[in-house]
Amino acid sequence: MNRIFGLVFTSILITSTLYVSQNVFASPFFSNGYFTENGIEWCEENLPLYEVLGDEFFEHHKHSLESRVCASLYQDYYWVYEGSDRVEKLIERSKHYSQLEILESYEESETGIIDTTPAENKDQTLLQGTIEDGKMIVQIISSSPRINESMEINLSFIDESSRLVSNVNYKIKITQQDQLILENNNIYSEKGLSTLITRPLNSEEPVSIIITINGIGSSENQEEWTDPRGKIVMFTVVPEFGIMSIILLGITIMTMIFLSSKINKISFRTV
Fold it and tell me: What is the pTM of this model?
């Protein structure tokens, strides 16, 4: 009985989220699958409530998509960004968090395991690339390279109208320091979303990702695939705080300590 209820609840989440993504659903907060300026303002107004309620914040808002995307934005580095284009950047980020919610809901429908908290990835890098003819955008939300840890890479294939592209066939090659991390020449994304997990990395050096679009269409009818075909998008995921940064920080701290000790030894005499 619990499993049936879980599947029904997940189906509701998927349906509502897909409506948002495909521009069927619109509200003062959401349009074309991401927040409007009113949506960002709604998040700002609800931040004090989130800080007080914690996870009960989602129950308070009936586990709405808006509440889950807001919670992800609160953890995003652009939330404390002070540039004049802060709202525009948060609107763009809300698009990616909405897509993560779609992916998580789809996975939950397969397993029957429900998680109503945000599908955020706090340790992440967001990159975007446009194929040569400009008719498709490939976006990735990836965890940072860490030694002895796998990388999680979330892919989104989006058309010119900011809608997910269905039935994408592609191949991917991931390398680090010329060493092959992951390679698959025949991947099918029915919903325009994919999640890939690499093997554990040997270092925190940048990771290169090459994605080639094989064609659009059913995975079983390669002869009927349509363009774009053979288009390549390349990404480089760089650790936000790698080994070299740590070394430089250590040198800076030691230098400050040394100078501070020297200054404290100076005696001043008044005339």
Answer: 0.54
